[in-house]
Input
Amino acid sequence: MALPPPDSYRSVYRRVVLVVLACLGFILGIAVVIALAARFAGDGNAVIAVILWSLGLGFLLFILVCLTAFRVHRWAIEAGGVKIEERPSIPFAGFPRQALVPFVEIADLREIESGMDLILELVTRNGICYRLMESRSPLAAGQPSLAAFGGQLRSAAVHGGNPLSLRQAPGFWNGPAGLGVIGVIFLLSLAVAIVVAWGLASGEMSHQARSYQYGVLVVAAPIGVGYWFYRALKRRRALMRGQQQN
Output
């Protein structure tokens, strides 16, 4: 495959928010189905059938959401603007999108920290938003990082007659809704960790090496989610302080 030129950037855009919300919706939906089936169904076999059908359909919908959550995005800086190409990573899992945005039509250029990912966001004057995510793959020699590419794009826009500034902006996980979702994930992971820790301590769970390692990972999950919450909250506070100073 030919390498992209130095004034372009290509990466897989991962819609993590969509996958996380779909996962939480799947868990909540199954819990509701089980509760309703146990409450209103008198036949035990019917309850099991309803639960199994709900699990199958819910899992199928979750897989479909995951298939549409990964897209290939490529931006290229050209003479009069930036050429944007988007397509699904998996064929037929979404619609492609292409655009050539003139520099003078760029209304805002932002850097967003979304969890562990850096995102470059471009907003046009008519409100259309395009996003480019930091690549997880090693960059080829001579290829700029996403932050460096954002600086190149800003400089090109300035030379094209649009005095843009590349500003820091909050992402979904730094807002109240995102922090609330992380809080729900923390509570769920904490509940599961308590059950698993009790099982390991009381001997109810197998002490085979592999099972024990998995159990330790589950118990440690709330620590990772807690760090995620701390990082998102710290980022939010830093952005709010920067806005107050400006």
Summary: The chain has five helices and eight strands. The first helix runs from residue 16 to 40. The two ends are 45 Å apart (CA to CA).
